[in-house]
Design brief:
There is one protein chain. It contains eight helices and seven strands. Among the domains are: about 140 residues, no CATH class; about 90 residues. Helix 5 packs antiparallel against helix 6. The protein is an alpha+beta fold.
Length: about 350
Amino acid sequence: MKDSGKNKAAIGAFVLGAVALAVIGVILFGGGQFFSETNRFVLLFDGSVKGLNIGAPVTFRGVKIGSVVDIAVRTNPTDWTTRIPVVIELEEGKVEREVERTGSVEENLKRLIDAGLRAKLDLQSMVTGNLLVDLEFLPEEPTRLSGYPHQYPEMPTVPSNFERIAKKIEALPIDEIVNKVSASLTALEAFLTNHALTESLNHLSQATANAEELTANLDRQMGPLVASMQGIADHADQLILNVNDQIQPLAGEARRTLKNTNAAAESIRQAANAFAELSTGAQPAIVQAGQAFANVADMTDPNAKERYELRNMLKELSEAARSIRVWSSYLERHPEALITGKGGSKRR
């Protein structure tokens, strides 16, 4: 009996341990949802949700705050419109609030929707093609609510980026684009097979070959031409040096000649001034001589030969004095006449 009691106690302890392990496993692998408050909302999508599975994450700006718990299909039999309700569950503890929340879940959701809260599908993995639900504040997007009765509050949705791209692709005139591309390819083929284009390419090839040959000839002739130009430049430099060597002595001679000419001109000016002073001083003596001879003439006989000759001599003296005055005045204006003579500068 004692052994039987011990076995029952061991079996009971084993069962209690198994139950405890099961509870711990549920808590660990269930994300602790037994001890956390959750809120569920429904999202209605018009397009395909291929790639979205139950258990897919719900994120807000990259942070997981919940998961997808149900996906269904809702059809309206009157117009056969189909929408896909997706139920998401948000964990209350994932969002920390700076101010304590007041009001019901529906009231808080309305305030968030008015602030621009929207849900959209986004790519979870490019390898698997799985989708997730992303929540974001998009106040520029319109609030789209279906109004269908549902047990959970409805959150508005916006088309995903893939849906927008697909709609733009659907709006493109594919047939028209294909026809234009086909016409362009046909025209391009006709252009490429045109005989005139082939001839033009042949002429262009020949012109290129001629240009290459001309360039080669220029390269061969450029060397001697450059050497000749270099020789001409060297001769020009030597000629300039020779001219400089010859010009410098000539310049020295010219400076000395100019200096001597200036000295001669100064001597001529001084001689002219002296001659002018001499002529000016001789004029009173000539006048006095004329008066003396006049007195002598008065003292002689009017019909005497000496008086006649004296009168002629006085006349000649008077003319000589006049010539001296004219010559003195001319020398003052042209002192070079003492060397070149009167009218010499004009002859040059």
